[in-house]
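Protein modeling request. Please complete all fields; requests missing the sequence field cannot be processed.
Requester role: graduate student
Desired output: 3D structure, token encoding
Chains: 1
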Amino acid sequence: MNRVIKSVVILAAMAATVTIAREANVSLAVEPGSKLSLTGSSTVHAYSSTASRLRVVFTHEPARWQAALPRGEAIEQLIREHGVTAIEVTVDVNGLKSGKDGLDKNMYKALRAEKHPEICFTLGSYEVADGAKPGEMAITAKGKVSVAGAERELKIAATAVRQGDSVRLRGDVPLKMTQFGIKPPTMMMGTLRTSDDVAIHFDLLIGASQPAIAGDSAGGAGR
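Delivered output (223 residues):
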């Protein structure tokens, strides 16, 4: 009997170890439905370009992941406790689409897409406070953004709120093209002039996933 009990205890310990390993390997990622866009205005009309190719890479401290909590709540606590240590956002310049070929071509030229094909943002630090609405987080982030080969310090104000198994992160970042040495594009022999002022809008769904584990019949743990 003692041998049977001992075997059960060993199996239970092994199962617990596998569970801990799974949770330690949790990774954060943006989910379908996430969106990043750029808006501006001109002497004729406003315009909007949406990023069709967006890559966001998160780094976090595994020890701060609270495996006992539901996914959405665990992500929220990870953010509140500064467990997210790095975020890298990459936007493919040629993947910015306005639906107007002429505008897109002028934008790619102004952003020097041939020489600098990506817009990049790297998080430096962030602070979290309670937002204006119940359950909402008010986030102030600092980092560096690189556009058309020019790198600048950037401060971002965003809000985050739990949404099911995910956390929704939203914000608007006002910029000036001339901050990055970009001359606002003109069209139609100069009769259409774009404003120096533009804004980046992001609406990201942050979820958590786990990599496949050898011998997992389901091919990996799902959300």
